[in-house]
Design a protein that fits this description.
heterodimer, A: 73% helix, B: mainly alpha
């Protein structure tokens, strides 16, 4: 991806190409983050789309003050997820769908991976809200500790502690399952 | 050992394991004193890494990309109109008069009934664009897209019966855009309502206490729109399925895709309207 700052500036001037690059560069990560946070594929698809439409509408107000665009985008995703839960008032428990898999892998691997991912998704639902957020950002979206800290509005030390407690909790849940 | 120090070691090992591709053993060798505590956590982290292999469905990826670009174009058009809001509509009105003078009203009327393989079809699409430009409200535009979707379905059925799969595909793509635009415009109208609402009152109260009431006229229009969409959500896929019986085999796969597009498109549109 091109220098993110210049891409964002171009996108703010409604440059379709710049928008497209920002969109493509973040789409999968946002989708995984939302999927892990809410655990429902169909809802995650709708929410992911909403995140980008919201970003499209709000990008003129984005100010580059050392905060990366991705942190801003994940903040929108976080708000959408919070809003989703507020509306639903309960956590989704739909089983993981076939379509969470990639489409180009061999069936045997697919089954193994599907089971693993299913177990993981189910296990993460039992974490606290903050632990799930850390796991989603760190493992599903593959962000650095510094990026996660910015998105969550916490210090890096606090995020590392949260990451530690989340992995310990996840281990316990998975060993019981 | 202090927790903070262990948190740092764990994070360093996670970076080495997940980003740099080192093995658990390599990490443990760097911290032999913490190895017993580290090992099970790193194993769990390695298992959790599988989450990053979750991929969006290709159909969803394509649909989302398309809708994003449609929304982008729509926003660009609106922003372009902001400073000289009257100008494009005047320009469009002048263009209509010119078209009528040049080709005659009868031709424009005839274009209304043309099919995608007809010579007057581009004029039919241009007329639709003019109608969209002359319509100010989001709900008004959404209603127009509902009408255009109805026309597209008739055209798809006709092209399928004629045995023209390429035309079926092309028109089905237009149908998909129309349905995506209805969903987008309905959401945009909702967003606009939320932005227009005054900030919530300082005193605690029900969450909607500060919202500006939506004018009854708007509610009626939205209800009518929903009714029309709900009607077509049943009628359109049914009409396309009926066309399957009369379509030659060469056009049937394209027609089946069009049926799938109409079902998924209406489902999304109804969701946006709920």
């Amino acid at each position: 991806m091109q220098d993110e700052e210049s891409l964002v500036r171009r996108a703010q001037q409604r440059d379709e190409g710049a928008f497209a690059q920002l969109y493509e560069g973040h789409f999968d990560k946002i989708y995984r983050y939302v999927t892990l946070r809410i655990g429902d594929r169909t809802e995650a698809e709708d929410l992911t789309q909403q995140v980008f439409v919201k970003a499209l509408q709000s990008i003129p107000s984005f100010k580059w003050k050392g905060i990366p665009f991705s942190a801003w985008l994940f903040r929108i995703a976080h708000n959408q997820v919070v809003d989703y839960f507020r509306k639903k008032k309960k956590y989704a428990t739909a089983p993981l769908n076939e379509s969470l898999r990639g489409s180009d892998i061999n069936p045997q691997l697919a089954v193994e991976r599907k089971l693993d991912i299913e177990q993981l998704l189910s296990a993460t639902k039992q974490l606290t809200e903050a632990q799930r957020e850390v796991i989603s950002l760190r493992f599903a979206s593959e962000l650095s500790i510094a990026q996660v800290a910015r998105i969550m509005g916490k210090s890096e030390g606090a995020v590392k502690a949260l990451q530690h407690s989340a992995i310990v909790a996840l281990r316990k849940i998975l060993s019981v399952a | 050992m202090k927790n903070k120090e262990f948190d740092n070691i764990l994070d360093e090992c996670l970076e080495r394991l997940l980003v740099k591709g080192e093995t658990i053993e390599q990490c443990l060798a760097s911290y032999p004193e913490q190895a017993t505590e580290l090992e099970p956590l790193l194993q769990t982290a390695l298992a959790a890494k599988k989450i990053s292999t979750i991929q969006p469905r290709p159909e969803f990826r394509a649909r989302a990309r398309y809708q994003f670009h449609s929304a982008l174009r729509e926003i660009k058009t609106r922003r372009g109109h902001r400073f000289f809001g009257w100008q494009p509509r005047w320009a469009t009105a002048v263009a209509i008069v010119l078209i009528l003078l040049l080709v005659g009203g009868g031709t424009v009327a005839a274009a209304g009934n043309s099919m995608p393989d007809g010579t007057l079809y581009p004029m039919k699409l241009a007329t639709e664009q003019v109608r969209l430009k002359l319509t100010l409200s989001d709900l008004g535009k959404a209603q127009l897209y509902v009408n255009f979707a109805d026309k597209r379905v008739l055209e798809i059925a006709h092209m399928a019966k004629e045995g023209k799969p390429e035309m079926v595909e092309r028109t089905a793509r237009r149908l998909d855009t129309h349905l995506a635009m209805i969903a987008y415009l309905v959401s945009a109208q909702e967003e606009a309502e939320m932005l227009m609402a005054p900030p919530p009152a300082k005193a605690p109260g029900p969450p909607d206490a500060g919202d500006k009431p939506v004018p009854p006229k708007q509610i009626n229009r939205r209800a009518k729109l929903r009714l029309a969409v709900a009607h077509y959500a049943i009628q359109h896929p049914a009409a396309l399925r009926a066309a399957l019986n009369e379509a030659p085999e060469s056009a049937q796969p394209a027609l089946r895709r069009a049926i799938a597009i109409s079902i998924a498109g209406y489902e999304n549109t109804l969701k946006a309207l709920d």
